[in-house]
Design a protein that fits this description.
152 residues, Immunoglobulin-like, 2 domains, four-stranded antiparallel sheet, elongated
């Protein structure tokens, strides 16, 4: 039986193959991460920062408390102030996962006299976020991310 020798070409081939695998895996993970969650909260953070304090103060002055629960396949959204239930205009609402946009949906809310209700279907178990933008009667914008846990 002849003995094979390890040459410089073999060592180079081993290193090239190992680093090719590492680089391929890193690039695949990076493209998947950027493709599923772009990480963009606002288009221009500098412009958004110029009115942040005034917007936050106006929103806090409303005194609203918001909660979201799941009742079967319906999403129940309750908005209350110090006096009782509030019926603002829902500007936008997006229900989705915190880590990717693949399961995002836009619930269409109707007010049933006590709360807002929207059919959302059966949601998978785990952490869900409702990103809500509502408008008070005086035109004040209310923005909040409501975290919901969907159990079994």
């Amino acid at each position: 039986m002849s003995e094979r020798t390890l040459t410089g070409y073999h060592v180079f081939g081993i290193f090239a193959a190992a680093f090719s695998v590492i680089i391929t895996v890193n690039l695949t993970l990076a493209f998947k991460a950027v493709g599923t969650f772009p990480g963009l909260e606002t288009k221009n953070s500098y412009v958004a920062s110029q009115t942040f304090d005034a917007d936050r103060d106006a929103q806090l002055a409303l005194g609203w408390t918001v909660s979201a629960t799941l009742d079967g396949s319906d999403l129940i959204l309750s908005i209350n102030d110090n006096i009782g239930a509030v019926v603002p205009k829902i500007v936008s609402a997006t229900l989705g996962r915190a880590t990717h946009v693949g399961d995002d949906q836009t619930p269409v809310f109707t007010h049933d006299g006590t709360a807002f209700v929207a059919p959302v279907g059966e949601l998978a178990r785990g952490n869900w976020n409702l990103r809500l933008v509502a408008e008070a009667a005086d035109g004040t914008r209310f923005r909040q991310r409501i975290v919901m846990w969907v159990g079994v």
